[in-house]
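re: ur question from the group chat, yeah i did fold both. here u go
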Amino acid sequence: MGLKNLIKGQLLSSISYRSSDPQELAAVYDRDGRRIMYESVLTVMPGQAAILVNEGQMTDIFMPGRYELTTNNMPVTTTLNQWKYGFHDTFIVDIIFVNTNEIIDIPWGTSEQVTVKDEVFGLVNVGANGKYSLSITDPKLFAENLMGVKNRYTVADLKSFVTPQIAMYFKEIVTEKQMFDSMEYYEFVREKLIEHPDVDGVFASS
């Protein structure tokens, strides 16, 4: 292998990612130590978003489409690196691919019951379980607040965070009302959980 081919083999000219796991919400693209060429082609598939990470800082976001990575479409990365017009060198950034498709039928349930006063039966212990669906509406906020330093984030990771939160919100909501009525509570609790401020912003949920 000649020197030219060796150097070319250490550079990325085309970047795309497709996960075989439908439960994967985000993953850091494995560059395998390679640098990215100026005008490398970044392909973002339908149902994805791609985030450039420059020295630990999330910069430019790309929605589905085909992009040649230049100073024109990487304004934040370009500014941080003080690249000038006409820059044609190789560079290093990490790329996070985020799944923006709707994920359906994610189960949840309360691990502890809450004691409430029922109009007919007096004091009763109640719990809840169900399923929810979601899609990531703000990829950058998701990556910053939930994914953090992980190289991969799945629905299982999300459940370990969200399920205790839902259980806590459920307890808050149930104890808001002094008397319990099962049919009335079903819709009341559902609406309150969806409206909760900590659920909004990152996801669209149902």
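okk and heres the other one u asked abt
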Amino acid sequence: MTADWVQERRRRVRLVKKWLKHLPRRSNVHRYPVLKWFGDSAKKRAYLWSFRSREMIPAIFLGMLVSLMPLVGVQMLVVTLLAVFLVRANLAVLVGLQWISNPLTMGPIYYADYQIGMAMLELFHLGPEVNPILRPDYDWSAFRWSHLADLVDTFPPMMIGGLVLGSFGGLIAVIAYKFLAKRSKASYQSVQQNKTSEGEGSEEP
């Protein structure tokens, strides 16, 4: 392990920490709602703060999966429970990915979940009847707030669609991570080989 390699690794760690400075870390996890409930357990688990591939890959996949499911309000609790008790995954990445679903993106994501879920149910001849309020010909002049309660029947197809969409998104994200990690490693090795070649050339008489 060369001194240059150590310096490069430290530089990358500093860069990652800069990107994640607003996300939970071992030193400040107790300041975050929900996460603070598991603060003591989280601090004792070193893998929650590790950026090695074996902790990053499950964090990326599960983070994408949960963020694209209709779990608004409980996402942070779900990913925290997954990271602390069920899988070895980076907690900061899991939490950070939950911001994919926010007030601006929630509508399109949940609509996509519903449409995909309905398509999957219909594929297996299990498609439920479309809720009247979601039909293009719905008479909005007859709308009542009580009609919104009927939307509860959209939850099962949304969950199914969220699992499909989230799994696909997680798979794509993991593939992208592996590609970028491999490319970064190859680039670093190339730089090191060039430095070695230059050093050997300068030593020749």
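fwiw on the second one: Helices lie at 3-19, 39-44, 53-67, 75-86, 91-97, 106-123, 155-203. The chain is about 60% helix and 0% strand. idk if thats what u expected
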